[in-house]
Structure formats: C-alpha cells, structure tokens
Amino acid sequence: MKTLLWGALPYIAFVLLVAGTIWRYRYDKFGWTTRSSQVYESKLLNIASPMFHYGILFVLVGHLVGLFLPESWTEKAGVSEHTYHLFSLYGGTAAGVLLVLGILLLLYRRRTNTPVFRATTANDKLMYLVLFAAIVLGMVAKLTHASGDGYNYRDSIAPWARSLFTLRPDIDRMTGVPVLYEIHAVVGMVLFALVPFTRLIHMFSAPLQYLFRPYVVYRARDPERVGARPERRGWERTGS
C-alpha cells in the first residue's frame, strides 16, 4: 500500500492529467469550456467567481512554494522556520477560507437557481466534491498541527514530492507523516487526475498572452481633435 500510494499513484495521476488533456484537446475542443451559466444569473456569480479563482490561485502558489522551495533556500534568505510556519499558517488559512467561501457561494447559486441547477451535471458534482474535500482536508491538517512550529512537511512531504521528478520516489520520506496530511495528498492527486475530464480543464486556457501583448491604440475620428487628414497622394486616390 505504501508503494502504491507514494510510488505509483503520483505517476498514474500525472499520466491521466497529460493523456486526458491531450485527448480532450484533440477530440473535445468544443467542450473545452466552463459551460458558463452567467446568462442565467450574474449578480452572485460576480462575487463568487473572483473569490474562487483568486483563492485557488493563492492556494496553488502556496503549495508550489511549500513543496518545491527547499528549506535551505528560505534559511539562506533569512527566513526562519518559525517565520515560514506563521506565514504558511495565516496566509494559507486566509487563502483556504477565501476559496471555501467561493465554492460555497457557487454551490448555493447552483442549488437555488433552477436554470443553473438544471445545467449542473454529475461530473460537476464530483468535481466540486473532490475539490472541496482537498481544500478542507488541507486546512484541517494545517490547523490540527498548528501549535509551536507546527508539522514541518518540508522535511518529509516536500522531499518526497521533489523526488518524483527524478523517477526514483523516496517513499520512505512519507513514513510518520500525519494521517490528515496523507489523506490530503491522496485526494489532491485524485483531483489532478480528474482535471482533464471536468470543467477545471479551462485552467489551461488562461489568456496569459494578454500580459505581454502591446497596448491597443485608439484614435478619435473627430478631425477637430486629431487634425484633418492630409490630402491623399496621387496613387492613393480612387478613380480618375
């Protein structure tokens, strides 16, 4: 079981994530969408959607930093383990609360708005259930081991996670990890495996090019504001 959970399951989830994404892109391009229900109701969505998206972004960044930024690097930067623990505790909890509230508002909207509820599929329900479970379990695990410097997962879970990229998973690192953290990790891997088969697939369509595109220049048409257009040259004139 230990080898299955920490040596095989991560790669199974990764293969499903990559292969499922390629399959979805090739054979279901028109389904590569969130199936927006804004046309049915937008007031509550305008509140819940930013909370959900910003919350999940902060949670994702926090996990990337915690798992893939070695403890020695933060120590060299002058950040003690206690300081890192407090930042992770309060920052992670705030991001988790924001995400949970966003999910709850989205679920409330889906359940109370008849057209939106009718547009909700069994796939959507499964996605919300697994996502909600992953977030809540992570928060419970963090808060349960919050006393003192808390549980230092950067000495166990983080090295295991980094070892996966060497294709030689150090499963012994997961020995002694609190059960809540183990369940959180398993549910998280299941969530990644489900991404290509749910509406979460739209995360790969984030318009990042908007961050680098040049400014759009708008010009007024009023000649008094921008000056009259100069007379056309001979080869620009139409007709003769």
TrEMBL record:
Its main location: membrane. Residues 3-221 form the NarG-like domain. Keywords: Cell membrane, Electron transport, Heme, Iron, Membrane, Metal-binding, Nitrate assimilation, Oxidoreductase, Transmembrane, Transmembrane helix, Transport. It is found in: Cell membrane. The chain crosses the membrane at residues 6-23, 44-69, 89-108, 128-146, 183-201. The keyword Iron applies. It comes from the Bacteria. It is a multi-pass membrane protein. SUPFAM superfamilies: Respiratory nitrate reductase 1 gamma chain. GO terms for molecular function: oxidoreductase activity. It holds the Pfam family Nitrate_red_gam. Its EC number is 1.7.99.4. The keyword Disulfide bond does not apply. This is Respiratory nitrate reductase subunit gamma. The gene is narI.
